[in-house]
């Protein structure tokens, strides 16, 4: 089910501005990979390049290749919508559809894909909400607006919505940065649980979080403002946090920079 | 097997296949040509219409064909996406057509009487057989009526906006704000009727030995009613954009609030306010109905807005359009061209001013 | 304005105390910071007293009056229209609401609003049926499809379209657009006369269809620009959420943009309706101005309250004017209701959005 991702010399642009410069890394199936680094170093840009959300912004484009089990998702004959269905994404701020109920939010992706049978949708909604550790909290009010939940619940609702379409990979762009510590813990628990089924890549500003949840960690950095971001070091999380190879990584981890 | 594979048979994509076929441009164009050809064959074969019907039917056939072919090649979802995109682009083209026609007619018919006589003479003593006659009196009428209306509406509107932004709190202010918005929707003919019943029929007889007096000033009052809400609204928006620290800086220096408003807030918001006023003026200059009801519509030159009837450019267009003389249409179109030129120059200038205005960014 | 001279004395240049006035009100009390009994604070002597009738009060009073002016005008419109309409309706020998002819200038005036009200609603509804889908298409094009280089000038052109005076559209409709509409009507009549609205024997041209189409062009920019603003305000993160679920662009619009914009679009349509109901000159120049109730939209005919006022005003005597004012009163009431409903929707939506943010 989960897939291996291989990035080779990925370079992303916003118009003429080069945001990241030839990033290469391999992400193994059923692992959690954390991307850390100072603000503006291009880790979110890289993440958005993995499911082709980068190109949604006007003027954005990309060079290099990104393969998922040996299929390059940037090949010209690839269907973008299929890529995004296969590689789900959870965003920084919880973004349930404001006009939809909790139930409708969860099944939105399935409905888009043409699943119509009520029983199937009900099943999928229940399974996804259970997987997202949200079922017990919302099972009595599935018809209420999703926007009425707390921030942490909303974020778990978004995760449920993402995994309802059964992606192979789940990308998380600072999923806890807008949440309080308890909700953050709930999401981290959830990530351990989801690891059995999905490949997860998470961008985070929180180094403790990276150390807690991830198997591998990639450190991005920039030399100075306006320069493209680079992948400085990519290794086992243990190694990055205890004995990094690069001086820059060590400086960042120990808080001497950034 | 994933749920999507099982339930949504139309989904071409599986975890192992993210590839899709694209509809080649040549096929797309081919469908368009075929659609038009079939439409032409049908229309002319049965003799049921002309080229317009060919185009309309052609577009319908094209959309149907596109839906079928694209649905086969790309799948139903992409095909639907493509169809809506085509429809949305078509809506734009459809809307540009009448606009282009209006502009073309305005220019081509409007230049016929674009001469000195038109701008230098009135319709006084112009009979049905006279090719001359101009809009001088109407231009004067428009300028004076809109000018007077601006003089009344601007102070009132700006003060009203100041109330809403600087003083207004609570229920009364919300009511005022609500009805300012509602007032923007009052039909111009109703504003005209209001001034007719209030000013012309009730107030003006006091100054005129008991007989109602139609005048340019009455038209100004009606235009004021129409301009006021627009000015209040745009000024309010501009005043709200003035940064709070600017006011607080003045208060901290001990400047009283009214002085702060007059000397700090208003000057900062001035370019935006001017933009709003210009748009309101442009709208007022184009109004026909209120002028028709209360201005009297004289054919001769009258500089006095308070006495004797006046015309206006918009009213002149309407009058000439209803005139039986064969020279009237040319006069109507030239006046329309002049009117549109004035209105558009004002509007464009206002928008350019707004674009340069740093506050609204 | 009664500036209190005592507050002009030398050590009170920062007098008038509008500042404190504002702040105390903000705190919910009307108490001046210093009162007569207070002992002097600090070393600088007593604080200056609040001027009771200073420039501040005068200026504030003026601005409040200007704000209240709006309410005064709306009420005055109702009062004065009623005062002129009532005598005319009293003189009416028929039922004003149901009678379908208009002879107010005769010695025994007989007139009713029925035909006019029907015609007003009919033309407006047809105009909206034509204009709204196109306007929404353009709004979506401007907000989500067009590249910025194209969207900005096109949006500008749409705004200019809104600025063109209605008399120009009327002139264009009568002199240019009537011919194609006449041909089209003839064609409709030839093949679709079994549908009642396309029936009749002609003549065609100066019809409800022509008036409605011209009206449609005129309300198009209003509906377009308001809807475009609403669509633009769709939170980007909701659009991204839809795209990240693997939706196509159109599906994204249906999932995120349209539901979010629905109240705003409804309000935009109602504002367009308000404009269409009140449009005068363009309809006076393009409708056939006859007095009968007919659903036939292609035969010469059609009428509306506003167009009738413009057409009949010239020959109206005193009762005639009163009758026209009475019909204007009906129009005022209808548009007031429509506009208030539209604004209420917009206001509720704004509160909803502000509290959600």
UniProtKB/TrEMBL annotation, chain A:
What name appears for this protein in its UniProt entry?
A: Phosphate ABC transporter ATP-binding protein
Question: CDD domains this protein is in?
Answer: ABC_PstB_phosphate_transporter (cd03260)
UniProt keywords, alphabetically: ATP-binding, Nucleotide-binding, Translocase, Transport
Source species of the chain: Paractinoplanes bogorensis
The ABC transporter domain covers which part of the protein?
5-247
- Return the Pfam families for the record: ABC_tran
GO molecular function terms attached to this record: ATP binding
Q: Which domain of life is it from?
A: Bacteria
UniProtKB/TrEMBL annotation, chain B:
User: Is Transport one of the keywords?
Assistant: yes
Pfam families, sorted: BPD_transp_1 (PF00528)
Subcellular location per the Swiss-Prot or TrEMBL entry: Cell membrane
Q: Give the matching SUPFAM superfamilies.
A: MetI-like
The UniProt entry, under InterPro entries, shows: MetI-like (IPR000515), MetI-like_sf (IPR035906), Phosphate_PstA (IPR005672), Phosphate_transprt_permease (IPR051408)
Could you list the residue ranges that cross the membrane?
Answer: 25-46, 52-75, 87-107, 146-166, 178-202, 214-232, 264-285, 332-354
Q: Where is the ABC transmembrane type-1 domain?
A: 139-354
The alphabetized UniProt keywords are: Cell membrane, Membrane, Phosphate transport, Transmembrane, Transmembrane helix, Transport
Query: How does the entry describe its membrane topology?
Result: Multi-pass membrane protein
What is this protein's function per UniProt?
Part of the binding-protein-dependent transport system for phosphate; probably responsible for the translocation of the substrate across the membrane.
Homology family: Belongs to the binding-protein-dependent transport system permease family. CysTW subfamily.
This protein is called Phosphate transport system permease protein PstA
Lineage of the organism: Bacteria, Bacillati, Actinomycetota, Actinomycetes, Micromonosporales
UniProtKB/TrEMBL annotation, chain C:
Q: What InterPro entries does UniProt report for this protein, alphabetically?
A: MetI-like, MetI-like_sf, Phosphate_PstC, Phosphate_Transport_Permease
Q: Spell out the Gene3D superfamilies in the cross-references.
A: MetI-like
| Composition-biased stretches (Polar residues) | 1-15
Q: How does it sit in the membrane?
A: Multi-pass membrane protein
Region called Disordered, residue ranges:
1-45
Compartment(s) where it occurs, according to its Swiss-Prot or TrEMBL record:
Cell membrane
Principal cellular location given in the protein's record: membrane
Asked if the keyword NADP belongs to this entry, the reply reads no
The protein's superkingdom reads Bacteria
- ABC transmembrane type-1 domain location: 117-342
Transmembrane residue ranges: 59-82, 111-142, 154-172, 208-227, 280-298, 323-346
One Pfam family hit: BPD_transp_1
**Which keywords does this Swiss-Prot/TrEMBL entry list?**
Cell membrane, Membrane, Phosphate transport, Transmembrane, Transmembrane helix, Transport
For this chain, the family text in UniProt reads: Belongs to the binding-protein-dependent transport system permease family. CysTW subfamily.
Q: What does this protein do?
A: Part of the binding-protein-dependent transport system for phosphate; probably responsible for the translocation of the substrate across the membrane.
Q: What's the protein called, per UniProt?
A: Phosphate transport system permease protein
* Native source organism of the sequence: Paractinoplanes bogorensis
Instruction: Provide the taxonomic classification.
Output: Bacteria, Bacillati, Actinomycetota, Actinomycetes, Micromonosporales
């Amino acid at each position: 089910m989960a897939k291996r991702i291989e990035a080779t010399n990925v370079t992303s642009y916003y118009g003429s501005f080069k945001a990241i410069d030839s990033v290469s890394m391999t992400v193994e199936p059923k692992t959690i990979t954390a991307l850390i680094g100072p603000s503006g170093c291009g880790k979110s840009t890289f993440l958005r390049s993995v499911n082709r959300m980068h190109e949604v912004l006007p003027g954005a484009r990309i060079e290099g290749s990104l393969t998922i089990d040996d299929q390059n998702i940037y090949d010209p004959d690839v269907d973008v919508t299929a890529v995004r269905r296969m590689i789900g994404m959870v965003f920084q701020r919880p973004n349930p559809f404001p006009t939809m109920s909790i139930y409708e939010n969860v099944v939105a992706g399935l409905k888009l894909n043409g699943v119509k049978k009520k029983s199937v949708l009900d099943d999928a909604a229940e399974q996804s909400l259970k997987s997202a550790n949200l079922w017990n909290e919302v099972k009595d009010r599935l018809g209420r607006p999703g926007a009425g939940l707390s921030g942490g619940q909303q974020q778990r609702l978004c995760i449920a919505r993402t995994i309802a379409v059964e992606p192979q990979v789940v990308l998380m762009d600072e999923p806890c940065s807008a949440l309080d510590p308890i909700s953050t813990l709930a999401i981290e628990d959830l990530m351990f649980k989801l690891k059995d089924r999905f490949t997860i890549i998470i961008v985070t500003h929180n180094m403790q979080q990276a150390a807690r949840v991830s198997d591998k960690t990639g450190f991005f950095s920039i030399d100075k403002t306006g320069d493209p971001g680079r992948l400085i070091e990519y290794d086992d999380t243990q190694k990055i946090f205890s004995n990094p190879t690069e001086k820059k990584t060590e400086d960042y981890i120990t808080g001497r920079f950034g | 097997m994933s749920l999507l594979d099982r339930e949504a048979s139309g989904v071409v994509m599986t975890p192992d296949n993210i590839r899709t076929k694209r509809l080649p441009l040549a096929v797309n164009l081919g469908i368009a040509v075929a659609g038009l050809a079939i439409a032409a064959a049908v229309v002319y074969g049965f003799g049921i219409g002309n080229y317009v019907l060919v185009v309309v039917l052609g577009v319908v056939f094209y959309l149907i064909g596109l839906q079928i072919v694209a649905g086969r090649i790309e799948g139903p979802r992409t095909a639907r996406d493509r169809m809506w995109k085509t429809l949305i682009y078509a809506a734009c083209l459809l809307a540009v057509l009448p606009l282009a026609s209006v502009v073309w007619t305005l220019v081509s018919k409007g230049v016929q009487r674009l001469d000195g006589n038109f701008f230098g003479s009135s319709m006084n003593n112009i009979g049905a057989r006279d090719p001359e006659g101009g809009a001088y009196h109407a231009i004067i009428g428009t300028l004076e009526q809109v000018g007077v209306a601006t003089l009344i509406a601007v102070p009132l509107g700006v003060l009203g906006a100041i109330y809403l932004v600087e003083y207004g709190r609570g229920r009364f202010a919300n009511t005022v704000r609500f009805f300012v918005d509602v007032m923007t929707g009052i039909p111009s003919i109703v504003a005209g009727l209001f001034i007719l019943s209030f000013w012309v029929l009730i107030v003006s007889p006091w100054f005129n030995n008991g007989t109602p007096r139609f005048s340019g000033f009455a038209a100004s009052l009606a235009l004021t009613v129409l301009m006021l809400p627009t000015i209040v609204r745009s000024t309010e928006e501009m005043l709200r954009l003035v940064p709070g620290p600017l006011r607080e800086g003045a208060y901290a220096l001990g400047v009283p609030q009214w002085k702060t408003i007059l000397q700090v807030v208003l000057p900062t918001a001035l370019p935006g306010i001017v933009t709003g006023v210009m748009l309101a003026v442009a709208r007022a200059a184009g109004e026909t109905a209120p002028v028709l009801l209360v201005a009297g519509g004289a054919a001769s030159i009258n500089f006095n807005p308070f006495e004797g009837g006046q015309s206006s450019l918009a009213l002149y267009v309407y009058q000439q359009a209803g005139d039986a003389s064969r020279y009237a249409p040319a006069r109507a179109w030239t006046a329309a061209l002049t009117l549109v030129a004035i209105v558009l120059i004002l509007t464009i200038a206002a928008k350019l001013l707004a674009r340069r205005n740093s506050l609204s960014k | 304005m009664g500036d209190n001279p005592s507050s002009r004395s030398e050590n009170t240049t920062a007098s008038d105390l509008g500042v404190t006035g504002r702040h105390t009100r903000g705190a919910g009390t009307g108490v001046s910071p210093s009162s007569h009994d207070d002992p002097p604070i600090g070393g600088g002597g007593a604080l200056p007293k609040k001027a009771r009738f200073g420039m501040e009060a005068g200026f504030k009073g003026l601005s409040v009056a200007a704000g209240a002016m709006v309410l005064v005008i709306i009420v005055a419109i109702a009062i004065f229209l009623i005062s002129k309409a009532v005598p005319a309706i009293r003189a009416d020998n028929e039922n004003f609401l149901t009678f379908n002819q208009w002879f107010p200038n005769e010695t025994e005036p007989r007139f009713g609003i029925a035909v006019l009200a029907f015609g007003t609603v009919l033309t407006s509804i047809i105009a909206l049926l034509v204009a709204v889908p196109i306007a929404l298409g353009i709004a979506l094009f401007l907000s989500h499809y067009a590249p910025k280089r194209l969207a900005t000038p096109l949006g500008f052109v749409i705004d200019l379209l809104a600025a063109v005076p209605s008399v120009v559209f009327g002139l264009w409709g009568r002199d240019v657009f009537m011919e194609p509409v006449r041909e089209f009507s003839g064609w409709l009549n030839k093949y679709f006369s079994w549908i009642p609205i396309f029936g009749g024997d002609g003549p065609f041209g100066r019809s409800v269809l022509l008036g409605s189409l011209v009206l449609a062009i005129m309300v198009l920019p209003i509906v377009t620009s308001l809807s475009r603003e609403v669509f633009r305000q769709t939170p980007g993160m909701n659009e991204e959420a839809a795209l990240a679920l693997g939706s196509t662009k159109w599906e994204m619009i249906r999932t995120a943009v349209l539901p979010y914009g629905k109240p705003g679009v409804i309000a935009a349509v109602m504002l367009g309706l308000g404009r269409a109901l009140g449009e005068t000159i363009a309809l006076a120049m393009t409708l056939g101005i006859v007095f009968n109730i007919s659903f036939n939209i292609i035969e010469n005919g059609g009428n509306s309250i506003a167009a009738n006022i413009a057409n009949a005003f010239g020959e109206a005597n005193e009762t005639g004017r009163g009758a026209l004012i009475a019909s204007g009163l009906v129009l005022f009431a209808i548009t007031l209701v429509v506009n208030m409903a539209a604004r209420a929707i917009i206001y509720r939506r704004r509160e909803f959005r502000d509290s959600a943010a």
